[in-house]
């Protein structure tokens, strides 16, 4: 599961952080598969839907996303770090989705082309959270859905890194709700437990 980049959230910083960790990323977190599958189930995809895994990393969510969208659906995975996409290819996850090197700040997708976005561990790595979440809203149809996911909750993740939770954590509900609202999303449900973090939002009709 993603740690916090050590220097910042520019594209270069994120690549510098993840590149040396990509090769053994899945081996470091071998038991996350069921948590990813459960989060994808809660996203509520229907057969034929078009879904983006934003910041897909090694593509751990892609098999579950493909199963939910079905063979007639469209599943895309984008990541900023070439080494993470290389790891996804080695794992054969390009068999479940189209993979592309892209920044969520500037997605190569047309307005409203998606039914949903799945984003695991993404929000803490965004360079401009409000604008980046607005870009995700741009490519999702009104009424479409967003899942912000992490396989452990905020407190468990903080403890793992030897730090305390702080009020400025973007994933805290009092911060996340208005952040999403300002970017075109309505927070629909919020779960922050030791074994999962999942915020589900709906694309507002404007």
UniProtKB/TrEMBL annotation:
Key word Transferase present in the record? yes
GO-annotated molecular function: methyltransferase activity
Annotated GO biological process: methylation
This protein's UniProt keywords = Methyltransferase, Transferase
Q: Which domain of life is it from?
A: Bacteria
State one Pfam family annotation: Methyltransf_11
Instruction: Enumerate the spans annotated as Methyltransferase type domain.
Output: 52-147
Please verify whether the record's keywords include Methyltransferase.
Answer: yes
Q: What is this protein called?
A: Methyltransferase domain-containing protein
Species whose genome carries this gene: Streptomyces javensis
